[in-house]
Amino acid sequence: MNRHDDHYEVIIVRYGTRSTTRSEVYLNHQLYHEADGPIDMDYFVWVVRNDARTILVDTGFSHEGGARRGRTTLVPPADAWRALGIEPSDAPPIVLTHAHYDHVGNITHFPDSPIVIAAAELDFWSGPHAHHPLFAHSVEDDELAALRAAHRAGRVRIFTGSITVAPGVEMIQVGGHTPGQSVVRVQTAEGPVLLASDAVHYYEELERDMPFTSVADLVEMYDGFARIRSLVADGAVRHVVSGHDPATLSRFTPLGEPLPGLAAVIGRMGGAE
Predict the structure, then answer these.
(1) Does domain 9-266 have CATH number 3.60.15.10?
(2) N or C: at which end does the chain have fewer Cβ atoms within 10 angstroms?
(3) Is the pTM above the cut of 0.85?
(4) Which residues make Cβ contacts (< 8 Å) with residue 109, sequence separation at least 6?
């Protein structure tokens, strides 16, 4: 077992899915002069843990938020956390990469947990543009209200640029998809892992500079792709974990029990591969 408290295992949990089309996924898809076609989209939450601490990265969509949009739930996030031995009474720190419905949907499940989120993200969803349909369709009002209530209660820590959440865990604001979209870099025994969240929905976005259809700042999104590629090229990141690509789990070691077929692990600690 790794005895350092600045290295972790990263657990990737696939909790939901849906089927859509490439023209609905990629911004101005017609400009690529490629045939449209079906594409699936998976939904993930991530757990970062070692002997010293457990950190949750995003909290998935709620039953209501998923049902309203016709999403398929494979395992309720609360059940997945419980299977991994994580209970609300543990009050694990929660890192929110952004405030869309499929990333903040269950924060009320952990009423005592401290939360970290970019200041630009919290400010935007409390500001004058949040109500516009092109933004509002991606959020749930009651979930934003819960986030603001947590902030008023002193449970939310905000940052600009980057922040060290814990030894070996860094949160980096990249923007693009949303004003405060962030990624999370985690040190593991298998090298640094970048939980890209929705800075990289699909690996194809990163490989071909193909922006996702939902974007707050297109230039920032392109810059985010370039920044992530640079981190990989420089060795600052070894593994990129996408936010929604169905190929994600197949790139990493299956976790097996207690979530067979629904989870993978990077830098497994305390057990055999």
Answers:
(1) yes
(2) C
(3) yes
(4) 59, 77, 78, 81, 88
